[in-house]
Specification:
This is GntR family transcriptional regulator. It comes from Amycolatopsis iheyensis. It holds the Pfam family GntR. By secondary structure, the chain is mainly alpha-helical. It has two domains: 132 residues, Arc Repressor Mutant, subunit A, CATH 1.10.10.10; 146 residues, Tetracycline Repressor, domain 2, CATH 1.10.357. The chain is built from twelve helices and two strands, in the order αααββααααααααα. The termini are far apart. 29% of the residues are buried. About 2% of the residues have low confidence.
């Protein structure tokens, strides 16, 4: 079986010292791309090594080689440890790779052990999201101007989406999550928008527009990771392969053709950080003009 072969290769690298304790192990995405297998197959290889106590999940670092003194056991198992381990898996491998059994395996505990602290995957994802949104807060004294306040909230949310790409994938804006730490960001944004002196319905609409700009862009962060894992092609590689097809499409679309021609001459990198910032500023400019502020 392919996952056994992958696990054997990694086991050998660990045994030979090529991957010493604490060293980061290739992620599920990278293993899938390198070995030409599905992500589920690569995940099974890491799960097998975790069950053997050779690797463990490290929050915000992914899967690392375990040291002997840190292997095994249910000792010290807490809800927070489960949540942080799950966040580490989602950060490194995507939310689709997350399962209760996988979390237990990464922790080196029995498959049912996490259920003592978390009822199931759905509750775990909510706890993960609440913890992630709570990683960044705000100073006691905010800037006096509503624009500066909203810009601060926008940059804070974007930094969290950047840190945890899966966070923007959870639910559509029409189904808000009942998370206290997310509400804390919402309160800051609403208090800034309220200075525009609008009614409650308009206030809600403006907040949806503001949040959707950030969430919509951030949703592409994990999609790009998935595309890289499934295709093995970087953004540049993919664009190079699409060149002939894009060139063929320019016939009859002069503006599109002109844009591509100029970008080919000047060079261009699509940077989501830049678009998030410029989009926020454009939104603020529009609100200031619309509401005379």
């Amino acid at each position: 079986m392919k996952y056994v072969v992958i696990a054997e290769e990694l086991r050998g690298r660990i045994t030979r010292g090529e991957l010493p304790p604490g060293a980061r192990v290739p992620s599920t995405r990278r293993l899938a791309a390198d070995h030409g297998v599905a992500m589920a197959t690569a995940a099974k290889a890491l799960t097998l090594l975790s069950q053997e106590g050779l690797v463990r999940a490290e929050p915000r670092s992914g899967t690392v080689v375990a040291s002997r003194e840190r292997r095994g056991g249910r000792r010290g198992l807490t809800r927070d440890r489960i949540v942080r381990t799950a966040i580490g898996i989602a950060d490194a491998e995507g939310l689709a790779a997350l399962s209760m059994r996988g979390v237990a395996a990464r922790l080196g505990v029995a498959a049912m052990a996490p259920y003592k602290y978390v009822s199931g995957r759905d509750e775990l994802v909510l706890l993960m999201a609440d913890a992630a949104y709570g990683e960044r807060g705000y100073p006691a004294e905010l800037p006096p101007d509503w624009r500066d306040q909203l810009l601060l909230v926008g940059r804070t949310l974007w930094s969290l989406f950047r840190r945890h790409p899966w966070l923007a994938q959870l639910t559509p804006i029409t189904r808000p999550l009942p998370l206290r730490n997310l509400a804390a960001h919402g309160e800051r944004a609403l208090s800034a928008l309220a200075q525009l002196d609008v009614d409650a319905a308009t206030l809600c609409d403006l907040h949806v527009v503001f949040f959707s700009h950030l969430q919509g862009l951030a949703s592409h962060l994990e999609r790009e990771q998935s595309a890289l894992a499934s295709s093995g092609l970087s953004e540049d590689d993919w664009m190079d392969r699409q060149g002939p097809a894009l060139a063929a499409m320019t016939s009859g679309f002069p503006t599109f053709a002109g844009m591509l021609r100029e970008l080919g001459e000047t060079g261009y990198d699509l940077v989501l950080d830049t678009i998030a910032e410029s989009g926020l500023r454009a939104l603020l400019d529009g609100l200031a003009l619309r509401y005379g502020r």
